[in-house]
Amino acid sequence: MLKIDLLQSGSHVLRNLNNINIIMGRNGAGKSRFLRVLEEDYAKRPEFHVRYVSPERAGTFRRDGNILTNMSNNPDWLRSMRSRNQASDFKAASATLLREIEVLYLRRLASTPEIRNDPSRDFITDRLSKINRLLTNIVLDVSVTDFEFKSLSSGDVIPPDQISSGESEAVSLATEILYFFDSIDPMKFNVLFLDEPDVHLHPDLQARLAALIVSLIEEYSALAESIAVCVSTHSAPFVCALAGSPKVSLGTKNFSVDAVELKPVTDQLRKIAPFFGHPLSLSLCDDAALILEGEDDERVWQQAARSSKGLLKVFPVLAGTVNQQSALESFCGGLLGALYDEPLAFSIRDGDGVQGQALPHTPPVRRFRLACYAIENALVTDECLAVLGKNWAEFVADAREWLEENAEHEYATSLRTLIGAEDRLRHDKIKDIRQLICAVTGSNKPWELVVGQAIGKIAVDGFSEGAMLVDYLGAELVKEVVFRQ
């Protein structure tokens, strides 16, 4: 339960607040004005911490001294500019806020021993990586004095005014959202007004931005009763991506009606959401739905599809549990059969220690079981270690050096068991040390990105029977899902 379940300014009323509140309505229905009226009122109330992100987000993601001066001299300057939608330098202000996020994180690090004592956690992994998960061809990195964009393919530095408008939009929005959460005041009720965050974003990118919001609500769950994110949008993909969270409510803003009644998103909408979010575009391409058990698998295969440069044609769909995966397989089969002449979908489940037991296909859904315990086990294959710039022998040497310095670490025994196992714990659970594996090699890359890039490289380089990663995934899975053979 939230401490406050209603926002009201005169006739403008938003009832039954949840942690994430979606406001939908046709063009001209007054959604933006509705949010601005509420923001202008509640920003003046001392018991509230309020931020507003306008739908007009122009400019370049580069810090500007004039913006910094205005923000420093007048704490209300940024709010007043955005409340009037006069946001020509929106992204320059976002770039300034990214530096503030770094400062806020370092303060949090200093006061939080469980973060400070974990060698796999730092500003890059906990914050910058959340932004980079939204990006496809570039990465936001830390330079000596500032932040900089780099090409994922060449490593070259790219000036901020030369990145795509969609990527610039994603970086700016993610920064604004992270800043709101990292600056939450536990003594106040915190409200973020997001006005049409889906503008200029591809449906897949909209879904990833929604996942960022959901993940931050979970990260700050201890303060959940004091947090409300209010979003106006036209986007079905964005709504459907948010609908996966149990903390989402939805309301409609109609013409000449200033009261919005929010209602919790139903389980039925959550079940069908993956099929109506992105795959309307399936009529224009040959992507196949890829039903996956968990969020980790979803992020891996999203990255794999991006890294394959279009060769891996799948749209990852999150089930959440094995039971939900079975339900989605059945639902997907019936739906695709009714819509397409040549329906096709895939479903991949964890190995969970089961060996040699293939899953029966249920056309049009092709079902597979990983030939390892879970997708993170692929992280120690030769191909994934190569993404980290190592081979197995080098990784073992790095791990032994790390163990000498961190003998009492809570995961020291698990890491020691891994490097001592002849099969690299292929059929054993290594979830607890998956990010530690990357950290031991000196890499800040999220483990999902590493595995996804390695799978994407299979698609680019072609099928190889002797590839270790192919063995872990399963040769039949690779042939059918990756290469459609």
What does this protein look like?
There is one protein chain. The chain is of the alpha/beta class and 485 residues long. It has two domains: 6-273, Rossmann fold, CATH 3.40.50; 279-485, no CATH class. Helix content is 44%, strand content 15%. Strands 4-8-9-3-10-12 form a six-stranded mixed beta sheet, with helices on both faces. It has a four-stranded parallel beta sheet with strand order 14-13-15-16, with helices on both faces. Strands 1-2-11 form a three-stranded mixed beta sheet, covered by helices on one side. Helix 7 (165-182) packs parallel to helix 8. It is globular, with a radius of gyration of 23 Å. The relative contact order is 0.10. Mean pLDDT is 86; it is low at 275-285.
How would you describe this structure in keywords?
six-stranded mixed beta sheet; alpha/beta; about 475 residues; 19 helices
Secondary structure elements and their pairing?
Elements: E1 6-9, E2 12-15, E3 20-24, H1 31-42, E4 48-53, H2 65-73, H3 77-83, H4 90-111, H5 113-116, H6 123-132, E5 138-142, E6 147-151, E7 157-158, H7 165-182, E8 189-195, H8 203-219, E9 227-233, H9 236-242, E10 248-252, E11 259-261, E12 263-264, H10 267-277, E13 288-292, H11 295-307, E14 314-318, H12 322-339, E15 345-349, E16 365-369, H13 382-387, H14 392-405, H15 412-420, H16 434-440, H17 447-461, H18 468-473, H19 475-482
Parallel strand pairs: 2-11, 3-9, 3-10, 4-8, 8-9, 13-14, 13-15, 15-16
Antiparallel strand pairs: 1-2, 5-6, 6-7, 10-12
